[in-house]
Amino acid sequence: MRVNFTVNGRPQEADDVWEGESLLYVLRERLGLPGSKNACEQGECGSCTVRLDGVPVCSCLVAAGQVEGREVVTVEGLAEFAKERQEHGHGGSCGTGACGGTSLDEAKRWEARPQDSQTGEGVELSPIQQAFIDAGAVQCGFCTPGLLVAADEMLERNPSPTDADIREALSGNLCRCTGYEKILDAVRLAAARQERQGEAV
Amino acid sequence: MAQHTRAVPAGTPTDVTQKHTEGGVGASTLRPDGTLKVTGEFAYSSDMWHEEMLWGQALRSTVAHAEIVSIDTSEALAVSGVYAVLTADDLPAAKNYGLEFRDTPVLAYGKVRHHGEPVALVAADHPETARRAAAKIKVEYRELPLITDEASATAPDAVLVHEGRTDRHASHVPHPNIVHRQPIIRGNADEAAKRADVIVRGEYTFGMQDQAFLGPESGLAVPAEDGGIDLYVATQWLHADREQIAPCLGLPEDKVRMTMAGIGGAFGGREDISMQIMASVLALRTGKPVKMVYNRYESFFGHVHRHPAKLYYEHGATKDGKITHMKCKIVLDGGAYASSTVSVVGNASSLSVGPYVIDDVDIEAIGLYTNNPPCGAMRGFGAVQACFAYEAQMDKLAAKLGMDPVEFRQINAMEQGTLMPTGQVVDSPAPVAELLRRVKARPMPPERQWETAGEGADVRALPGGLSNTTHGEGVVRGVGYAVGIKNVGFSEGFDDYSTARIRMEVINGEAVATVHTAAAEVGQGGVTIHAQIARTELGVTQVTIHPADTHVGSAGSTSAGRQTYMTGGAIKNSCELVREKVLEIGRRKFGSYHPAWATAELLLQDGKVVTDGGEVLASIADVLEDEAVEIEEQWRHRPTEAFDLVTGQGNGHVQYAFAAHRAVVEVDTELGLVKVIELACAQDVGKAVNPLSVIGQIQGGTTQGLGVAVMEEIIVDPKTAKVRNPSFTDYLIPTILDTPTIPVDYLELADPNAPYGVRGIGEAPTLSSTPAVLAAIRNATGLELTKTPVRPEHLTGTL
Amino acid sequence: MDFLRPASWEEALAAKAEHPTAVPIAGGTDIMVEINFDHRRPEYLLDLNRIELLREWEVGEESVRLGASVPYSQIMENLREELPGLALASHTVASPQIRNRGGVGGNLGTASPAGDAHPALLAAGAEVEVESVRGTRLIPIDEFYKGVKRNALEPDELIKTVHVKKADGPQQYSKVGTRNAMVIAVCAFGLALHPETRTVRTGIGSAAPTPVRATAAEEFLNAALEEGGFWDNGRIITPSIAKQFADLASGACNPIDDVRGTAKYRRHAVGIMARRTLGWTWEQYRAGNGRTLEGAA
């Protein structure tokens, strides 16, 4: 079957989709967006978390056919999404397609690019992405994309979370490397930076 | 499939360059791959993609031990979209691989020896097509009796898991179903026991733990025009893989070109081959690139696990708290194939005493062949199981003597100069008593943290968490301590080395170093510290980390806590040689202009050649101009010896690492649910090359130990030898709500034998974390608790 | 496999009538796991995501009409007053991501004894509104569960809404799992006080082939509360009554040994949860200060 939907603000079309395919498979194998990760494919680890019409979901448990006409934000579009939100206020979305994101052609040409900096110099990151790097919350990084999408959404809803709030919001995202301490640090850091930024404005 | 336009495998790893001016050894520089990892662009092995690629799928055995009567692939071959269906008969060359013995079939032939063993392979144009075709392969099994434990393995009439063994241990083991046996005898335990005022005995069971790395086994095999193969996979040791892969493909090693793809965690589980040979065989057969990705179910069958163990211990002590002797027997279940069981046995026996001074010991460790899932490397490697048991024994002894458990340990703690039971002198710092002192001195976390101002209980701070099982009822706090000892590096006479190729050249007027090794970056931050070392040694700010591949010599495995020591050491060594070369060029070009070139100690700093007095002699750019200096050298740690097969004596280990934990838990004693409140760790790290990464390693290792204490276990049905919980629904690992704060206190007592004084750090925290949590639960409940993981049933008497 | 995408409820019913083997998919949190792990290959998937009415709820006089696909996160946030037991149960469902997708209809459709919503529905009292092209039926929740993963649905029927009685008193819900979050129930217990009828209702999950009520425990407690005048005098329930109630709740279980827990533990834990939830709800009733325990949500 054919599925048309919006990913990171750009319309996408996937063809010859097998009916049992998940949104995760379509993103990774058909649209060249492998940032969402395939760790368990049973909704237990959260590494495939994306936003579906704004709501964080496990993309491995969304049938591809269910996203017809809907909007998806993946980790690849997170920086742009956060920027848009900051510029256009709370809850901004890339639904218009005007905010950049990854075009179909760009997506299909995806490949890992060399990065020239340890701190993200030259690459625009969302506050939560930068905080994960700065706090040492990334080790193998396989859980990172899902955690970033989930944490970003939590900070959107709850800009000053307590530790218990952070733990609850991220309880659907397994990490096997870090023991979570530095992930908590990263979310606290992003929240603090956001607050400072808010005060500055 | 949608049409992609990528020509080379997408996600082929690319160079990572750093530009920061500071950031040498000792700085908390940030990961060079951090940006790629937070933007989703870092290419893991499961992200590989190639035009025209096929998907490989294995069919795995549904029974644990059986003769294969027949395999019928005809229906599978008839499925549209299928390109190949292979069985062992179709394998091009050697049929077996293996880390220590070549005993593991690529595809089962003759018989299957464990549940989930690969039996056949399919390549098709879509993963679903491959799965459907695999389901149509008909395999007829004739079931054989099961070997599942020591009794069934060593019975006189036991069926042999492997007949006709010819491996190096076959001749000395007491039974062919014993992979390896390592006794250690020192002093006279029976005589010493007579001096004991108290004796405690215990029988302990350690469950089978899974590495549960998040990135599934996966990769891409691309057939090359020269008849060779290009492999993009996630592994802990490229060169050891290649040594095993090439014979199975019937190719010389230089035609098996391996590139490291991004690794989604490893923890020992990628030390053995998984999909590498299977994908290669399919690629060579079909002439097309083949991608294989295990799903989580298959992953539980696709890699070895931590050896489950039975441990029998006896300790004695005098009234003043001195341990008199220790006797133990450790039975490790290696499952159907040897993997690294031999080395795990060596570790378990040689570290079975723990970090204590005990002169009279009688130790025996054996590793079994059974029809259970194969077991091999996992973080802590043989030392984890022993630590769980001896630390329980320490608490029992202390209790029996009426002593404080920490003081009792401190009285018996080893220190620099102590003899190991193997006779080896511990010749670098061993601050065991100090580590215990530090965790004990920490302030206790506040009590009753679930109480909120007027809003009732916050269940997130209580055992049971969000499941709302208690608002404080039945909750009792407990505190427990543990300390452990782990060896670092490959032991027992293994020729353990790493290789680093360092290139220095001038690009755009700036001196740039490139570090090329085959070391696996599994998440630990090797790439970060490699650049730090190059900066420190070569005085450059910009370092490029070349992707790991087999175009450079072996780095050895990313395991045994050895990579900072070994590949760090190799990089340091090659950098020193490069530095000498650069200075030589400098002397040649500029020596006549300044006497210091000949007389002073010269350094490379901030892109310049300087004297040790700080005088700048030239810029590196001026020295090198268009010249590039490149050196590839191997580097070795000091040699070790094999353990004597009868006495266990020998200088078998390279280095020892120590960590201590204090666990504070709260147990719902009625429901048997546990919440770990705090898990404080103190560890000697020798030298923190990157403090941020050091803490991350300690917290991660601690959490894996916590998992095995209270929830993690692969459950194998003893009647069928089948795995009952191969999923993340029923194999539970800690969530962020299960993981407490983990305060870390590290010491930097340099090991004079190691580069920068470093000590392997990744493994030790995994040892003591588990027994500390167990001790805390015992403290809260008064129960004996001799098994990991502790289940609610154990705490409520409802097994 | 065919993927059916009805745009309306009527289209969905027609599709289900035409293809009775079609498997409905809404949140996908059960069925997609089975597809990903190769356990199931339905001939037809019937996507219910485009049907708005399934995602709506309506608070009436007596009950809440809860659309089958209203996600658990919405129940937690918006129906804590009306359906406190179900809101607590919703909070124990898997993870935030799953709670954003899964709804009560999925629990009912799958009818696994481990479904988190069941004990809360049994305790609150509910009717399941199912529909086919032939018409509508209201199935009392007590008659809905027919066996392990079997329910009272006919092949052509779909679950439309659940009519859950609005709370007239305190409700509680507890679930035992061996992890502090994201865990399938080893066993679960729901309890609702109904002061208007002076009755107590219960629900037990994962401790019998189907979700069940602890009927004998309810009857005992109803009688004991009545006899002691507890509803009026608001006295603390005596430990012996609580113990008897807990023992009878335990006795209502018919559990199995499996990888998640032993039968013996399940019986034991249900008893503990019964005693605790009774204590909590009764305290709330005595305090008379609202129907939910804030801190527990």
TrEMBL record, chain A:
Transmembrane segments: none annotated. It comes from the Bacteria. Residues 1-78 form the 2Fe-2S ferredoxin-type domain. Keywords: 2Fe-2S, Iron, Iron-sulfur, Metal-binding, Oxidoreductase. Pfam families: Fer2, Fer2_2. Gene3D superfamilies: 3.10.20.30, [2Fe-2S]-binding domain. InterPro entries: 2Fe-2S-bd (IPR002888), 2Fe-2S-bd_dom_sf (IPR036884), 2Fe-2S_ferredoxin-like_sf (IPR036010), 2Fe-2S_ferredoxin-type (IPR001041), 2Fe2S_fd_BS (IPR006058), Beta-grasp_dom_sf (IPR012675), Diverse_Oxidoreductases (IPR051452). PANTHER family: OXIDOREDUCTASE WITH IRON-SULFUR SUBUNIT, XANTHINE DEHYDROGENASE IRON-SULFUR-BINDING SUBUNIT XDHC-RELATED. This is (2Fe-2S)-binding protein.
TrEMBL record, chain B:
InterPro entries: Ald_Oxase/Xan_DH_a/b, Ald_Oxase/Xan_DH_a/b_sf, Ald_Oxase/xanthine_DH-like, AldOxase/xan_DH_MoCoBD1, AldOxase/xan_DH_MoCoBD2, AldOxase/xan_DH_Mopterin-bd_sf. Gene3D superfamilies: Aldehyde oxidase/xanthine dehydrogenase, a/b hammerhead (3.90.1170.50), Aldehyde oxidase/xanthine dehydrogenase, molybdopterin binding domain (3.30.365.10). Residues 39-145 form the Aldehyde oxidase/xanthine dehydrogenase a/b hammerhead domain. SMART domains: Ald_Xan_dh_C. Residues 1-32 are annotated as: Disordered. This is Molybdopterin-dependent oxidoreductase. It comes from Streptomyces roseicoloratus.
